[in-house]
Amino acid sequence: MPRMTTMEAAVAVMAQEGVDVVFGIPGAAILPLYKALSQNPAIKSITVRHEEGATHSADGWARATGNVGVAIGTSGPAGTNMVTGLYTAWADSIPMITITGQAPRAQLHREGFQAVDICSIVKPVVKRSFLVMEPAQVPWVFREAFRIAREGRPGPVHIDLPLDVQQAMIDYNPETDHRLPVFPMPPYRPAIEKALDMLLQAKRPIILAGGGVINANASDVLRELAEYLQVPVSPTLMGWGTIPADHPLYVGTVGIQTQTRAANQIFLESDFVLAVGARFAERHTGNLEVYTKGRKFVHIDVEATQIGRIFQPDLGIVSDARLALEALLETAKSRVARQQPREWVERVGLLKEAKDRRMDMDTVPIKPARVFKALNTVFGTDAIFTTAIGLYQIWSGQFQHVYKPRHYLVCGQAGPLGWEIPAAIGVKCARPEEEVVAVVGDYSFEFLMEEIAVAVQYHIPMVIVMLNNGYLGLIRQPSKYQYDMNFGVDISYGMNEDRGMDNVLAVEAMGGLGKKVMNPQDLESAMRWAQEASQTHQLPVLVEVFIEREADAAMGPSLDQIREFDEVIDRDIALASERQ
């Protein structure tokens, strides 16, 4: 049996599990792992500037690949800095492993330097946390961590490694070890039959496609089912890309913030919802009474405790999303012929046309919608976008077009500011041939802007498009309308065209490139310049767009309010019909 250090065994396991890059910061309590990494060319190590940045980069890598991302830090504050990233991955069902060093076992109860019970700290936001006390357990703990991260509802796992455990020698043969199997949950066939009965009986059904469809790599089956039965599809924000934005069955996103007016109206007119891999988050549902009244629900989710958590569906099915959709498609093909578009599908098309929002404004200062028109125009269907939380994310959800799964990546549930740039770094490391664009706000940019130095150091090209309004915009809007104040939300101070920090200068100081845009006629040319410059110089490139400072995003109890506009909607549809 070969003899090696525990960390050499751990690195061998990671390589076998499909990890080709890790993100982290070396420190005294984790150096044995870094020594093992230095000896294994199969895994590239990216040194970040903050441990939270490491977790977000590993998160982006995992979202882009569907594999388990890995972030590494030393003991003490390195682990506590990772908590936000773990929470983000846990909330969005992203498979990830964080690894921290720890004081030697004999010091754990003596308040040793940087010795903190990180396993207890992260426990609420991970699927499992391990403190490895026996060297011989190391390879098997790593194997189990990867299995747990992948199985069922994906999520993060944490491994804490005392220094003396890392330095120990063990007997281990990678050639006789293998990845632990993951068994996707199959659906109960009678439940599938019942779900299909309900769908076929409905007059105005829709399919609600959540992030679980993407996690299960089931977008192709979902589209085939929708096309076979001619059922419109509304993806949640986490499910963007499950169906292309230009598909005739594409509805748009329902919600109170990231939504389209047509999608909300279509949802209210529906009488049946087949929800697959969706969790009915608050920003999606809004008022539950309005959301559920008048329609039946079938909820398919891989985690049993998600069913009934927000409201009780008419039918719950515990299953892997792909296996459930395959079963539905197989059953449908055995029972009915391929369907032709019905009146409901035609109405969906009319509603989308009638309620489409204008994006071609050429006024100065620049309207936010105009920025997303430029994004939709310049970047092709293969571009991968990352975005975080703020008014810019809400505008993105209302105006941006996405065509493929794993091409629109957003920290949906936790919403940490600063996520988009380190996530984009992880995405680019995972998909080096793809174009990667981070859409950011000026305030979120400042949270983890130091990670731009990582992209410069490792020659990671990407485009950053910033919407700068000099405000904590998402807080300014409710502060103004709900509390009648404008307190603590203005971050402008007369340096960058009265918008605060000179963001282009900051990027250039770290070795990147940047350009400011103040006129809408310059948007497309600036974005094309950034495309070319990022590839030519293999650098991150910022396009900073100065938008209208007081611009608001359309949000609120949209499903409640939309009934007030029925007459206007019907008039618009009638006009659209006449134009046809």
TrEMBL record:
Is Transmembrane a UniProt keyword of this protein? Answer: no
SUPFAM superfamilies reported for this sequence = DHS-like NAD/FAD-binding domain, Thiamin diphosphate-binding fold (THDP-binding)
Domain Thiamine pyrophosphate enzyme central span(s) in chain numbering: 192-328
The Thiamine pyrophosphate enzyme TPP-binding domain covers 389-545
The highest taxon in the source lineage is Bacteria
Q: Where is the Thiamine pyrophosphate enzyme N-terminal TPP-binding domain?
A: 4-120
Q: Which UniProt keywords apply?
A: Thiamine pyrophosphate
List the InterPro entries hit by this protein, alphabetically: DHS-like_NAD/FAD-binding_dom (IPR029035), THDP-binding (IPR029061), Thiamin_PyroP_enz_cen_dom (IPR012000), Thiamin_PyroP_enz_TPP-bd_dom (IPR012001), TPP_enz (IPR045229), TPP_enzyme_TPP-bd (IPR011766)
The entry sums up its family as follows: Belongs to the TPP enzyme family.
| Name listed for the protein in its UniProt record | Glyoxylate carboligase
Organism this protein belongs to: Sulfobacillus thermotolerans
Traced from the root, the source organism's taxonomic lineage reads: Bacteria, Bacillati, Bacillota, Clostridia, Eubacteriales
